[in-house]
Each structure stands twice: as structure tokens, then as C-alpha cells.
From TrEMBL:
Chain intervals for the UniProt region annotation (Disordered): 29-80
Gene Ontology molecular-function annotations: ligand-gated monoatomic ion channel activity
Pfam families: SBP_bac_3 (PF00497)
Entry keywords, A to Z: Signal
Span of the signal peptide: 1-22
A GO CC annotation given for this chain: membrane
Name listed for the protein in its UniProt record: Polar amino acid transport system substrate-binding protein
Family matches, as PANTHER family: AMINO-ACID-BINDING PROTEIN YXEM-RELATED, MEMBRANE-BOUND LYTIC MUREIN TRANSGLYCOSYLASE F
Sequence ranges assigned to domain Ionotropic glutamate receptor C-terminal in this UniProt record: 78-305
Annotated InterPro entries: Iontro_rcpt_C, Solute-binding_3/MltF_N
Organism: Rhodococcus triatomae
Keyword Magnesium belongs to the record: no
Chain ranges of the Solute-binding protein family 3/N-terminal domain: 78-306
Length: 313
């Protein structure tokens, strides 16, 4: 996988880094990374953060001031993580987010370790996708569930630095006319569906501008059932999920992915309560995983190579 060079921080940023190093991870102002610049599909391009340079940290060194005894977590001495149920592959494995397998399962474990929490000190709770993004007090320290970083969501929750960048893709029944689409223009006459509260349907509407309104479903499982039942002609999901569906359901096929020239890739970030004292801590951990090459390695292990997927211009 291709690594991406990052811009050097400005002098002002370096002063901010020094201030954060001096105060640990209890600063009241959370870090909110920018997500405006497109990033490669398999490697997120983190925006400048007011955090210590991850290159100065050991790949296995815990982030100072963030671990057990710091008072930053919901329950001192333990870390509470959240995701939805079921926990889908390739993001998780065996519907068990706590086993450290699947891309997001592995990322969650690595972040926890960077914060100083071993697997015995981490517990997962089930929180529906929309509930995790809703404003208000959370009962978790951070949630991981393919949450796309966006400005409108930042008004309700905090996001960490991005840990993955991904295109949206289209899956159709193998025998459907929609399976023959080779461009976004070919999709305008078809009925599209996606999971509600995700960015997939919005991306499709803005990119394809279909003649028919899209349909939102409570879960990806519901959307898959609608596709199989003929309620929709094509399903819009993130690219790794689309590849997983086309492998899982033999009657479906990956139609293609939206071009980055017309639809910037989504960037996934960890979700935290607004103004959480853990936001900076978690961002430092993610940045360290990025700079040490761990995120690349995990993506290579758990996510199917997307290089050969057709681009729908």
C-alpha cells in the first residue's frame, strides 16, 4: 500500500504541540481534524492536529495522561467502546468486536493499547449507529462503526483523526440491468438504496442524480434483503462493505466505485462525546498508528484489495 507524505506543521502548530505535551490529555478544547482533502482509499491522510508529533512516540509507548488512573474515561481504570450489532465484516470478525479481529476490531484494540489499556480492561457496548452520532451524554469513551467525519456531525459529537479513507460503491443483482452500468449516467434510471443515517445515499444522490428517490433502510442487512427482493435495483455502500457483500451473496456483483474526482472519499473517525477529555488522547493514538505503518498493515490484513474495482465516472 502507498504511504502518503504529510505536510510539515507551521511554527504556530509547533507551539500548540508543545502546549499539549505540557498539559497531557486533559485539555478542554477537543481536536477536530479537517476532512476536506481527498485521501487514498487504503491510507488516511490525517489533517494537522494540535497533538505531539507521533514520530516522537514509540509504536508501543502508551500515550501519557490517557490511561488508567487519568480520570479521562467514563469508568476509571477501564475503557468503554461502542459499535452497532451485528458487527459486519470486514470491519469486525465473527460478530465479536472484542476479539481484536477485522479492520475496525483491530484498530480499536491498537488504539486501546496505545492509551494504556489491555484487552482485559476494555469492554464493548452495543450502540446503534444513529444513537452514537446523536448529541448528548454518551455511555462510552469512543465508538467505532464506519463513521464518516463531516462538519454537520461535528456539531453533535467529537471525531478523532481519521483512520481510514474510502470510496462509495454500488452493488447490484448479477442479472439486473443495473449490473451493466459503466458510469454514473448509466445509474440515473435505477432505484438506489442504502443504510439510513449513512453518507452513502447522500453521496449517491449528489453524484448520480437519479430520476427516482433513494430508499433508506435501518441496517445494511435490511438493504441487502431489499436488493434481493427487488425493492431496489442497486445498493450503495462503502467499497470494502460492497466487496464483502458481493463475495457473500453469489447472486450479486460489484458494479463499481464512484470516482474520487466526482465524490471525495469518506474519512472514518472514532466518535466521542462532544468536548470529551479523551478526544485528544484518541487522536494521538490514531496518529501514532498511522505514522508507524500499523494502519497500513491492518488494512492489508483485513480489507480486500480494491485496486481492480471499476470506477464509475
Amino acid at each position: 500500500m502507498t504511504r502518503v507524505s504529510r505536510a510539515l506543521p507551521t511554527v504556530a502548530t509547533m507551539l500548540t504541540l508543545t502546549a499539549v505535551l505540557a498539559t497531557g490529555c486533559t485539555a478542554s478544547a477537543p481536536v477536530e481534524p479537517s476532512d476536506t482533502d481527498p485521501a487514498p482509499l487504503s491510507v488516511p491522510d490525517p489533517a494537522p492536529l494540535s497533538v505531539p508529533d507521533p514520530a516522537s512516540l514509540s509504536a508501543s509507548e502508551p500515550v501519557a495522561g490517557c490511561g488508567p488512573g487519568s480520570g479521562a474515561t467514563k469508568n476509571d481504570g477501564s475503557l468503554t467502546l461502542a459499535t452497532d450489532s451485528p458487527a459486519y465484516p470486514p470491519w469486525f470478525a465473527s460478530d465479536d468486536p472484542a476479539n481484536g479481529e477485522g479492520y475496525e476490531g483491530a484498530v480499536a484494540r491498537q488504539v486501546a493499547e496505545r492509551l494504556g489499556y489491555d484487552s482485559d480492561s476494555v469492554r464493548f457496548v452495543v450502540v446503534p449507529f444513529a444513537d452514537a452520532l446523536a448529541p448528548g451524554v454518551k455511555d462510552f469513551d469512543f465508538a467505532i462503526n464506519q463513521f464518516t467525519i463531516s462538519d454537520d456531525r461535528r456539531s453533535a459529537v467529537d471525531f478523532s483523526s481519521p483512520y481510514y479513507a474510502v470510496a462509495q460503491a454500488v452493488v447490484a443483482l448479477r442479472e439486473s440491468p443495473a449490473a451493466e452500468a459503466r458510469s454514473t449516467a448509466d445509474l440515473v434510471r435505477f432505484r438506489l438504496g442504502a443504510q439510513e443515517h449513512s453518507t452513502s445515499l447522500g453521496t449517491a444522490a449528489a453524484t448520480v442524480q437519479t430520476e427516482l428517490p433513494g430508499t433508506a433502510y435501518a441496517t445494511n442487512d435490511d438493504a441487502k434483503e431489499a436488493l434481493l427482493a427487488g425493492e431496489i435495483d442497486a445498493l450503495v455502500v462503502d467499497l470494502p462493505t460492497g466487496l464483502q457483500i458481493s463475495e457473500e451473496l453469489s447472486e450479486t456483483v460489484m458494479v463499481g466505485q464512484f470516482s474520487r474526482s466526482t465524490a471525495a472519499p469518506d474519512r472514518f473517525g472514532l466518535v466521542l462525546e462532544k468536548d470529551s477529555p479523551m478526544t485528544t488522547c484518541v487522536s494521538i493514538a490514531v496518529e501514532t498508528l498511522y505514522d508507524s505503518g500499523v494502519l497500513d498493515a491492518l488494512a492489508g490484513t483485513w480489507i480486500t484489495d480494491t485496486a481492480g474495482v471499476r470506477v464509475l465516472d
